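User: I'm preparing a small set of examples for a lab meeting where we compare how different chains pack in three dimensions. I only have the primary sequence for this one, and I'd like the structure in token form so I can line it up with the others. Please keep the answer compact; I'll paste it straight into my notes.
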Amino acid sequence: MAENDITREPPPLQAAFNANMHKMQRPIPGQSLTRDPENPLPFEQPPQFVDKTDALEYLFSSFVEENKYESLLTVLDQGMPLMDLTKLLLMSGFQDGLWNFDLMLILIEPVAYMLMALAERAGIDLKVMEDESGDDEEEDSEKETLFSGKNIDMATSSSALPSEISDKIKNVELPQSLLKQP
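Assistant: Understood. Below is the structure token output for the 182-residue chain.
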């Protein structure tokens, strides 16, 4: 009976997996250890920011730059979910070596509140997350009223943001192009 177990063919799903396993595009184990130490990737070096407040100050100053501010608000106004934009911005900073992964996770909440406050100042109705579960209409209407751009103090009074940044958000001038009627 032991001979039958050895000569038995794997199940069809396992056979398909084994046949295609070598085609997967993935690094081989230990490949990261073969990189040239003289030319490390940005995220393999010490991060530029190690303090939450310093990183938030940097992010805020980059958000309110004239071209980037308009772009961020335009993307949010076109319906991009707030959390998707937050993840995109923070992951980009991680890949550029601005912060390490741990600080990136710490920055998620305050950056989301910062973007929310900037969008509320511009009167943009936010979409916080992409609906995956098909929530009922009652929950959707509750989310709409919560983030409808009518309560800027909610986002800026959060303990996630330092008070200096909250004050700066309240004083940000809105670009003229967003205030014009379509």
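A couple of notes for your slides: Residues 50-176 form one domain. The chain is about 55% helix and 0% strand.

User: Perfect, thanks.
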